[in-house]
Amino acid sequence: MTIREGKKEDLPRALELIKELADYEKAPDEVTNTVEQMEKDGFGDNPIYGIFVAENDNQEIVGIAIYYYRYSTWKGKRIYLEDIVVTESERGKGTGKLLFDRIIQQGKKTECSGMVWQVLDWNEPAINFYKKYYSATLDGEWINCSISFSEIS
């Protein structure tokens, strides 16, 4: 398994994996992103996210990790893990751990104070993964909030 920085050419496969995750999370209709938007946002003049891909021995992309930076008034610069996705047939083989470790490495390299991410409360495999490998703190106290600007006039 090889973990490398993603390229524009990887985006169609990355979007397929994102849609696979949406299916798994029971929200297939929620993905409105496009390859074109991902290219603009990640590979334009002012990239707002980074991506790592996991390739198997046949150089097929079987996983991705997407991250960006955020600022915490309490902790300073943090790396935010938006998503790790490993295609279903490759789960349980260590690919997710390799991607997660690469995000940690990126955070340390860019002088972040730590990493944050979200996990659905019913996603037991992911929760167990984070607890097993990293002794992660899972805080059920905060409520996630969002607004879709397309719904505001």
From TrEMBL:
Keywords: Acyltransferase, Transferase. Pfam families: Acetyltransf_1. InterPro entries: Acyl_CoA_acyltransferase, Diverse_Substrate_AcTransf, GNAT_dom. Residues 1-153 form the N-acetyltransferase domain. PROSITE patterns: GNAT (PS51186). It comes from the Bacteria. One of its GO terms (molecular function) is N-acetyltransferase activity. Belongs to the acetyltransferase family. This is GNAT family N-acetyltransferase. It comes from Fulvivirga marina.
